[in-house]
UniProtKB/TrEMBL annotation:
Protein name as it appears in the record: Growth regulating estrogen receptor binding 1
Species assigned in the record: Aquila chrysaetos chrysaetos
Keyword Transferase: no
GREB1 N-terminal domain span: 62-212
Entries under InterPro entries matching the protein: GREB1, GREB1-like_2nd, GREB1-like_C, GREB1-like_cpSF2, GREB1_N, TAGT
Family, as annotated: Belongs to the GREB1 family.
Keyword Transmembrane helix belongs to the record: yes
Compositional bias (Acidic residues): 59-71
Domain TET-Associated Glycosyltransferase, first and last residues per copy: 1529-1757
GO cellular component, one term: membrane
Domain of life: Eukaryota
Pfam hit, one: GREB1_C
Membrane topology designation: Single-pass membrane protein
Gene: GREB1
Length: 1933
């Protein structure tokens, strides 16, 4: 692995090098030959330059093909012109020029003669990615197994045509038609050895292990996914990057990747690099040891330690395509070295467009020209590794000490992507709009670098947007011209900006860089980049680039393209960029390696030298020994004292309460949105979710493998389900940690889903952005078991295909699930709603949410306390140490510095005041408030400080160190230190457990906190470890969120936002954290502090003084402090003015330490304030600043502070005696935890992150939002529009769906849309909302309401009302039938009297019908109800649907899909429209009806043969009997209920064949047809569009009779008698849902001995039973009871009744031929019809053993009629009294049918016409030939004027009124004179017009007995064109 004797000539290689040099010079265009000896004397066995291994993204062969194709489209760095093929030769890919097939698939079975010493190898052609071309090559020119000893040059034969003796690979590649656009190289195209298998066929063998690629020499068979996982898109671009760990080689005989293994064993940390970074390494005995031991590959290592044993010209790239590692470790843009997870796309250079992958970078991989030697000791001299970004053109080889540099292709890729126009711009025409030139790109890059501050790091997104803006501006005119829709192509418009030439470029770049104080240095080369790089290294070594952060090297000449590269030499920038190239797993390994190998010990020893007083540990020990007794007792007193007080009940803190989980309005709204999405999926015509088939729900919540998150979710769920008294163990079955045991639990879940098809299973994936690794990339033993689990489980085939599993992804950061390949439809995304809309508070919450935007807002001027801060002194120390220890990872340095700061701060607070100089003010503030917090509360409540340390080993070090310091300082009872590891639970000391139990009133002896929420009020430092937070929630006592140690180089949107999400917080909305007015006062003059002299305001404004004062100082907000606890607020207010003045005069460090020191001496200051003394004795620790204080100012500030703040005596842990003013102090003390919960926590960030978070673009969008959204996705193009602050969540989603694509390691990578539209999974939803806002509560609430809804779907509300007017019913002991009789006996039935009284409860408000002289008390009739109460007050009960129920359109099941016409396997049902006309004399015209008949129902009808005209509807015979057939056609009139009407009778009919016709109005025809495509429709004529149910009944009956006549005529010709045709039809309401039957058990001896049960039966059974009634054709109407739970035995003892029937009737259209429904009626038309039928002497039979249940439907039906004014459209409530008016008056006319107005008026105001009749039931109103409802307080007596009609005996009856409604000629004067009326009785005559009104009065001789007045004439409030009804009233003389 390289020449280990650098500098000595190795004779064995001389020939090889010489050969190479000659060949190189022959090929080179340069005149100067390359030096031979320099190659041999330099450190010879260089690996590839780090650039060469970068951009390794996919299988090498594919990558290189892309490269060549890519180079065609974007100016190729190395142009190569093939010789034109000879005339007439074959140029087909896969064939040689002689036309012979060379493809392996074609000639694998042919015999091929191979000369001795030759081998058959497979060559790859860029044009045939899926094929190998067979070649015979001299094996001397091929490498051995170690990649060595291949002779330079080539010797080969063509196996097709047999031509031999090709001596140059260039010539040979031409012959076999490789058609290359880059320099032909055998290493690039000769890929595999070819071997014969057992069958003798030629197959692909092992990879040819070229030099420098030992790592790739693995057997191809082990990499089964190589050929399938990375199918290239049509663009031939590699569309992703992966990051997993290498597969172990399946073939142990294949050469192993020994270099990587060695790196793994040796823990070489310095090799961790960017995607393209490859380092030279030297062979070691360890590597030799591992070469034959593949099992050593047990853990991932940092890739990039590849060696190259050949001279530079012949170096090769990357790994073999079949190397198992290549399948997951390539990463074109950034990171082939991502063994565990794909790197976060580059931290600062954090993103790469998808087009980056259109052809891997060949030029960055291949060095050219003279090699450049990297100087020795570069890192030691420069204190940083320079990062070289390859730019344009050729890049030279690096040799020498290349471990000290890092090379990356990222910038090269960015340049190339910015030159390939996105598809979005192809519309402008390729010839019209040109991409940005290379010169302009480089110049813009220089401009960008020049404007960067010294503490800023370049971001690739910034550069891409700069290019984009520049391009758009330069082509604005063309784009605008195109957008004006010019159809033809237009000539190119010259650009407004003159193009930069290559000659001008260095001069312009130098000019740009001249203004930046040498931050950017330009080096111009005349010959090649090599000279510029050499000069740059020379300047670095000489120390001349100390001020320079960026070196731009340009090689520009007129005759060729420019070469360029950019070197990051700034120590800070180079460190950040190099560390950003590490994947998270590499980052952990690097840190772990440095800890394990003891490299950090130098850091520790350095810290100990900082403290002049000696080692901190010694100081601690000394302090411990000196103060052990005193401090521990005083501290324990201070801590335990409150508990004692608590016990006595004298001073307990009352503010403590654990927040209970309550559903907030927001959560309920989100839950309902989720439910509506589920319903919309179910309602869609795709049939993807059949909600109607589910009876209940089950669910499984998948959470990340964090024990705390798991317990937290369990607790949420348990509290929600607690009503059911479930144990926590029982709840555990519903929550699954995605860990090693998850598969078992998930398997059970899948089995349950298969076994319970009628249960809806909801699979909730919480924290869904965690682990989106593709399962294919996690099958390696090196990876964590949990990696890829989500993909393996949630995306498995069973979940995708199960029709009863709905998947809900829940996350705060949905971006990675919103790519071009996402499974989730944009319509299935639910975003957390906004609180405000147009300034209106949509949801009244009592708490305000503080999230990222609120935190950012707090940093703007005009706000009170900046909640986001950074610690400048900490950053300065880290930067200084970074320069001193360049080899240590900055995470290690930052952690050790912060631990040091916390340790020193704790010591300073405990009285070692000298230590305050070794911490920062921020850390001192945190520590002081933490330690003092528990002393301010009588119960000992305190604050939580979260210290976020992502790297677990570092977290363990920090815990151990801080724990030790705490013990030495005897603070172990003051606050707890908790190590929060995601894989384990919470461990806290017994003392603190007891405190928590006391506060939370927990009596369980074994209780331990299991979630962070249960640590409410516990003073503690929570060291939060783990690379990513996994959904853990923090308590309200959180006060500080210290994120100074987060990985600031990993600049990915999700990563940054989830770290800041830890601090997301709800504060009480009554307390406003920002009071601008108060702030201004405080900022302008601290002397005015007295204006805030009250405690409430103090809560909101404390600590503002110091922070606002700093806004005005030159140091900006670097040192802003929040003095949260009483101690700090006291000191800060007292010293704010002094601080402000001293900040300008003293050094910052001194001021900081002084102010910090002040806060440590609050006891002395308190004593001053209490005594109101002037400068009395001050402790020796008092800082010098205090001496500058004016005495009066000090006293005044002191007074203000003590009254306005909630101070505590225990403000310092100094050893002074306790204050004497205990009583006074306790009155002012307040629990700091309470205050903490009223304001959001303060967040400390790294400076780099702070700058990114707080900087915004022109639209106000935070810069972090435009970062790459997630580490396993990439941008689809550099040419993408900017995001905008105005974007809604939905628009952001659409943006990411358009502009991001998943990398191959992403689980959605293979979800490609290959011309299909079904890549979205229909049952997958995404809920997104800000962190900690309550998503868990929302989805649990969703589960709850979904469960209730499913139960509700299987239940209906049915009317459950007792029959009315039971007491009026004739009580008779006579029973005509036995209780168990199945059918009525005709003769017996004829003897039964007709019961005129209405018993149906829906007519409770109807007029009573008198049948004889009745004495009814007025109390027995209920008072009239208000109109609007009619619907709401009816009693219902909830019933579970039986299997015989009728359903609405929401029901879908397998059985009735075909019935409904929605089965996707069937063609959508075609229907035909048929006209059907018949004449009806009463209407005086022909009635034209239309039938819509689906093809499947045409067999029910008869059509004429020639024209297919509808002739009749087939009717069966009376004698027909069939078990599977219902004889009676069913008609259902309906309006306004296309969705809710119960028209699906499939189950009700138990599958029996039946004819069902929906009767609809013309204007509703289309909507009914849409919802019920397989139903027959009878469409009423348009004149009935505004008619009521009477019209529908009338037409149904008349049509049916007409059809009966037609059928009799038709079947008479067939020899069938007319009376044998079945005459019945069924008229059913659209709300009949179920039918019941009463079964009698009459086993007793006596008639009264019987029992009965009622059960649900099918409608088929009932209809067939009724149809089988003996002599059934003698009955005119047959009906059944309305069901009621209150039915008693007496009501059903008589099995048959002769009474009114309603809702569901069988009508004999033959017998009732001459009895019509009144087509004008809206209400009570069935009562009216029943009375007509009875008076005609026909039989009406009600089967009391059968009952119908009616569903309450809230829409449609009668309620669809709205009475409104005809004049204005504004809905005005119109009372029924206004429904009539005087004729010719100026009354407001109403837009409603006249008949409806009449009926409604009479119902509510008939007493105005019949005043004598009111409650006068013994004197009813005589109603002739009709029944109209006059309201419940007036009784009517119905008589028919028809001759021979049955009427009640009116003798002895005196009537109080007479109602004549549209009387016909049967009503004559003599008929009326039979009846007797009371004196003063009133008459009401109703006619169609005024003329007929007068005629009727004359014809009936009414004026003889009735007196009329002109003013007694009225009309309905209709306009003349609406044909009002007129009525005349008169008084009986």
């Amino acid at each position: 692995m390289g020449n280990s004797y650098a500098g000595q000539l190795k004779t064995t290689r001389f020939e090889e090098v010489l050969h190479n040099s000659i060949e190189a010079s022959l090929r080179s265009n340069n005149l100067v030959p390359r030096p031979i000896f320099s190659q041999l004397y330099l450190e010879a066995e260089q690996q590839l330059s780090s650039l060469e291994a970068g951009s390794r993204a996919d299988n090498e062969e594919e990558e290189e093909e892309e490269e060549e194709e890519g180079s065609e489209s974007s100016s190729p760095p190395v142009s190569y012109q093939m010789k034109p093929p000879p005339e007439g030769c074959c140029t087909t890919d896969g064939f040689c020029q002689a036309g012979k097939d060379l493809r392996l698939v074609s000639i694998s079975n042919e015999h091929i003669e191979v000369p001795a010493g030759f081998l058959l190898v497979g060559a790859k052609s860029p044009n045939l990615p899926d094929h190998l071309l067979v070649c015979a090559v001299d094996k001397r020119f091929l490498p051995d197994d170690n990649g060595r000893n291949a002779l330079l040059g080539f010797s080969g034969n063509c196996v097709g045509c047999g031509k031999k003796g090709f001596c140059y690979f260039t010539e040979f590649s031409n012959h076999i038609n490789l058609k290359l656009t880059t320099q032909p190289k055998k290493q690039k195209h000769l890929k595999y050895y070819l071997v014969r298998n057992a069958q003798g066929a030629l197959t692909k063998g092992s990879v040819i292990c070229w030099k420098g690629a030992e790592f790739r020499g693995r057997q191809s068979s082990s990499s089964t996914c190589s050929s399938t996982l990375f199918q290239l898109p049509e663009s031939s671009g590699l569309s992703g990057s992966t990051s997993s760990e290498p597969l172990p080689a399946a073939n142990p005989s294949a050469p192993a990747g020994t270099q990587q293994t060695a790196a793994a064993i040796d823990h070489i940390p310095s090799t961790a690099a960017f995607s393209s970074a490859v380092y030279n390494g030297k062979e070691s005995p360890k590597q030799q040891l591992v070469k034959n031991n593949l099992s050593a590959l047990t853990r991932p290592s940092v890739l990039g330690t590849l060696t190259n044993s050949g001279p530079p010209k012949k170096r090769h790239k990357g790994w073999s395509p079949e190397s198992p590692s290549s399948t997951e470790t390539w990463n074109l843009q950034l990171n082939p070295q991502a063994p565990n997870r794909i790197k976060n796309d580059g931290g600062s250079l954090s993103s790469l467009p998808h087009s980056a992958l259109v052809g891997p970078a060949s030029s960055p991989m291949v060095g050219s020209g003279e090699p450049v030697s990297v100087p020795d000791n570069l890192l030691k001299i420069c204190k940083a590794k320079p990062v070289i970004f390859k730019g344009h053109g050729n890049f030279p080889y690096l040799c020498g000490n290349i471990n000290d540099v890092i090379v990356s292709p990222l910038l090269y890729t960015c340049y190339r992507n910015s030159q390939s126009l996105s598809r979005a711009y192809e519309q402008y025409g390729a010839s019209t709009i040109q991409p940005i030139s290379e010169e302009m790109q480089l110049l813009l890059t220089v401009y960008y670098l020049v404007q960067l501050a010294s503490d800023q790091v370049p971001l690739i997104e910034d550069l891409e947007q700069i290019f984009m803006r520049s391009w758009r501006e330069s082509h604005l005119s063309e784009i605008r011209q195109y957008q004006q829709a010019i159809p033809q192509t237009f000539p190119q418009v010259p650009s407004q900006i003159a193009p930069v030439t290559s000659a001008q470029l260095p001069w312009l770049a130098g000019l740009a860089a001249s203004s930046c104080n040498d931050s950017v240095h330009i080096i111009e080369c005349s010959y090649s980049l090599a000279e510029g790089l050499s000069e740059m290294f020379k300047l670095l070594i000489e120390g001349k680039l100390i001020k320079t952060n960026y070196v731009v090297i340009i090689c520009a000449s007129r005759n060729r393209a420019i070469d360029s590269c950019i070197v990051i030499t700034g120590k800070y920038q180079a460190r950040v960029l190099s560390e950003s190239m590490l994947t998270p797993s590499d980052y952990q390994k690097e840190v772990n390696y440095q800890l394990v190998t003891g490299k950090v010990e130098t850091l520790g020893s350095f810290f100990s030298t900082l403290c002049p007083e000696g080692d901190i540990d010694l100081l601690l020990e000394k302090f411990y020994q000196e103060n052990q007794g005193h401090i521990s007792s005083s501290l324990s007193a201070s801590v335990n004292k409150p508990i004692a007080l608590n016990g006595t009940g004298t001073a307990a803190c009352t503010s403590y309460e654990i927040e209970r989980h309550q559903i907030r309005p927001f959560q309920l709204a989100v839950a309902q949105k989720l439910l509506s999405h589920i319903c919309s999926i179910a309602d869609s015509s795709t049939q993807n979710l059949d909600l109607g088939s589910f009876e209940k729900i089950d669910f499984l919540i998948c959470v990340p493998p964090s024990e705390v998150t798991y317990q937290q979710t369990l607790f949420h769920l348990w509290t929600l389900l607690n009503k059911e008294h479930l144990t926590k163990q029982r709840v555990e079955q519903y929550v699954m940690k995605l860990d090693a045991e998850a598969q078992i639990k998930f398997k059970v879940f899948l089995q349950n889903s298969m076994q319970n098809p009628h249960t809806l299973f909801v699979l909730i994936h919480d924290h869904a952005h965690w682990d989106l690794m593709s399962a294919m990339h996690s099958l390696y033993p090196q990876t964590e078991l949990s990696t890829g689990l989500v993909d393996r489980l949630l995306n498995c085939r069973e979940v995708k295909e199960a029709p009863n599993i709905v998947t809900l992804h829940v996350t705060s950061f949905p971006y990675a699930l919103q790519t071009q390949h996402t499974h989730i439809s944009p319509y299935n995304e639910i975003h957390w709603p906004s609180s405000y809309s147009n300034g209106v508070d949509l949801y009244h919450e009592n708490k305000k949410y503080f999230g990222l935007s609120e935190f950012i807002e707090s940093t703007l001027s005009g706000h009170s306390i900046p909640l986001l801060r950074y610690d400048s002194s900490f950053e300065a120390m880290v930067m200084a140490l970074g320069k001193r220890f360049p080899r240590l990872h900055s995470a290690v340095i930052r952690t050790f510095v912060l631990i040091q700061h916390y340790s020193a701060a704790m010591m300073a607070v405990c009285g070692l005041s000298q230590m305050k100089n070794y911490t920062s003010v921020e850390t001192l503030e945190i520590t002081q408030n933490l330690i003092n917090s528990s002393r301010q509360c009588p119960s000992g409540h305190g604050l939580m400080v979260v210290l976020r340390i992502p790297c677990t080993p570092l977290a363990a070090v920090a815990y151990e160190r801080l724990y030790n310091v705490r013990e030495r300082l005897a603070l172990e009872d003051n606050f707890e230190i908790i190590l929060g590891n995601p894989n384990s639970g919470i461990t806290i000391g017994k003392h603190f457990v007891e405190q928590l139990k006391a506060w939370q009133k927990i009596e369980d002896v074994d209780w331990r906190p299991q979630t962070y929420l249960e640590l409410e009020g516990l003073p503690c430092i929570l060291i939060f470890s783990g690379m990513d937070p996994q959904g853990e929630s923090l308590p309200r006592s959180l006060r500080y969120c210290d994120l100074r140690l987060i990985n600031s180089s990993s600049l990915v949107r999700t990563t940054l936002e989830q770290e800041l999400g830890l601090a997301a917080y709800f504060v009480s909305s009554e307390i406003h954290t920002e009071k601008a007015v108060v702030n201004d006062v405080l900022e302008s003059d601290p002397e005015k502090l007295s204006s805030t002299d009250n405690e409430d305001e103090e809560v909101a404004t404390e600590g503002i003084t110091s922070s606002t004062s700093e806004k005005r100082s030159p140091m900006k907000r670097e040192r802003s402090r929040s003095h949260d606890s009483a101690s700090s607020s006291l000191s800060s207010k007292a010293s704010s003015k002094t601080l402000r003045s001293s900040l300008l005069t003293k050094s910052s460090h001194q001021v900081l330490s002084n102010s910090a020191e002040e806060t440590t001496n609050n006891y002395e200051r308190q004593k001053q304030k209490v005594d109101k003394g002037a400068q009395t004795t001050i402790s020796k620790h008092l800082p010098p600043v205090t001496e500058q204080l004016d005495t009066k100012q000090n006293i005044k500030s002191a007074q203000i502070s003590i009254t306005s703040s909630s101070s505590s005596p225990f403000s310092s842990s100094s050893s002074s005696s306790a204050p004497t003013h205990n009583s006074f102090i306790l009155q002012t003390s307040q629990c700091s935890m309470t205050k903490a919960s009223k304001q959001p926590p303060i967040v400390f960030l790294p400076k780099l992150v702070y700058d990114i978070i707080t900087s915004t673009d022109s639209s106000g969008l935070p810069k972090s939002s435009s970062l790459l959204p997630y580490h396993s996705v990439m941008w689809a193009s550099s040419f993408r529009p900017l995001m905008s602050k105005m974007m809604t969540c939905t628009e952001q989603s659409l943006y990411y769906r358009q502009w991001t694509v998943p990398k191959p390691i992403h689980m959605d990578y293979n979800n490609r849309n290959e011309g299909r539209m079904d890549t979205f999974h229909p049952r997958r939803l995404l809920l997104s909302g800000p962190p900690q806002i309550g998503k868990t509560g929302a989805y649990l609430q969703f589960l709850s309401i979904l469960s209730r809804m499913l139960i509700r779907l299987t239940e209906v509300d049915v009317y459950d009302e007792e029959e009315i007017n039971i007491n009026i019913k004739e009580e008779s002991d006579q029973y005509y039938h036995q209780p168990g009789d199945m059918w009525p006996d005709l003769e017996t039935f004829k003897k039964m009297p007709f019961d005129y009284t209405i018993h149906d409860p829906k007519y409770e408000d109807a007029s009573l019908i008198c049948s004889k002289l009745q004495t009814i008390n007025s109390e027995e009739r209920s008072m009239s109800r208000r109109q609007e109460d009619m619907y709401t007050r009816r009693q219902t009960t909830r019933m579970r649907l039986s299997k015989y129920a009728a359903y609405n359109t929401y029901h879908h099941c397998e059985q009735c899909h075909q019935y409904m016409g929605f089965n996707p396997r069937y063609q959508l049902y075609e229907s035909t429209l048929h006209a059907f006309a018949f004449s009806y004399s009463m209407l005086g015209e022909e009635i034209q009806l239309h039938f819509i008949i689906p093809k499947s129902k045409e067999h029910h009808f008869v059509f004429s043969q020639p024209g297919r005209q509808l002739e009749s509807m087939r009717l069966p015979l009376v004698t027909d009997k069939s078990e599977d057939y219902i004889k009676s056609p069913t008609f259902t009139p309906t309006t306004g209920r296309h969705e809710h009407g119960l028209f699906n009778l499939y189950h009700a009919m138990d599958g029996a064949s039946h004819l069902h016709v929906l009767v609809v109005k013309e204007y509703e025809m289309a909507i009914y047809k849409k919802y019920w495509p397989n139903h027959i429709m009878l469409v009423l004529p348009s004149i009935f569009n505004s008619a009521g149910v009477g019209a529908a009944h009338f037409l149904i009956k008349e049509l049916s009779y007409h059809n009966l006549e037609l059928e009799r005529n038709r079947q008479e010709e067939l020899g069938i008698k007319p009376q044998d045709i079945w005459p019945f039809i069924v008229i059913s309401d659209d709300s009949c849902v179920m039918w019941n039957s009463v079964e009698f058990d009459c086993s007793g001896d006596r008639k009264s001995d019987y029992t009965w049960t009622e059960r649900n039966v099918s409608l088929k059974q009932i209809l067939q039973h009724i149809e089988a009634t003996p002599n059934v054709t003698h009955y005119a109407l047959i009906g059944m009871r309305k069901w009621s739970s209150k039915t008693n035995s007496a009501e059903i003892k008589e099995p048959f009744s002769c009474c009114h029937v309603h809702d569901f009737i069988m009508l004999n259209v033959d017998l009732t031929q001459n009895v019509q429904y009144n087509q004008n009626r809206f209400t009570c038309d069935d009562v009216d019809f029943n009375l007509r039928v009875h008076s005609a002497g026909l039989l009406i039979c009600r089967f009391n053993h059968f009952s119908v249940m009616k569903k309450q439907i809230a829409v449609g039906g009668q309620r669809s009629f709205h009475i409104k004014s005809k004049v204005s459209d504004t809905p005005v409530s119109i009372s029924p009294a206004q429904y009539i008016c005087a004729p010719d008056s100026k009354h407001t006319f109403l837009a409603a049918p006249a008949q409806l107005l009449l009926e409604k008026y009479l119902q509510y105001h008939s007493h105005r016409f019949f005043p004598l009749s009111l409650k006068n039931y013994s004197h009813p109103v005589l109603s002739v030939d009709c029944y109209l409802n006059l309201g419940p307080q007036i009784a009517v007596c119905y008589v028919s004027s028809r001759p021979h009609s049955l009427n009640i005996s009116s003798s002895g009856l005196t009537f109080s009124g007479l109602l004549l409604y549209l009387c016909d000629s049967f009503v004559v004067a003599s008929f009326l004179k039979k009846f007797h009326f009371l004196k003063g009785a009133t008459l009401c005559v109703i006619c169609q017009d005024r003329n007929s009104l007068r005629q009727t009065v004359v014809r009936l001789e009414l004026e003889d007995e009735w007196q009329f007045r002109l003013r007694d004439e009225f009309q309905t409030a209709n306009a003349k064109e609406d044909r009002p009804l007129f009525f005349l009233t008169g008084r009986h003389i």
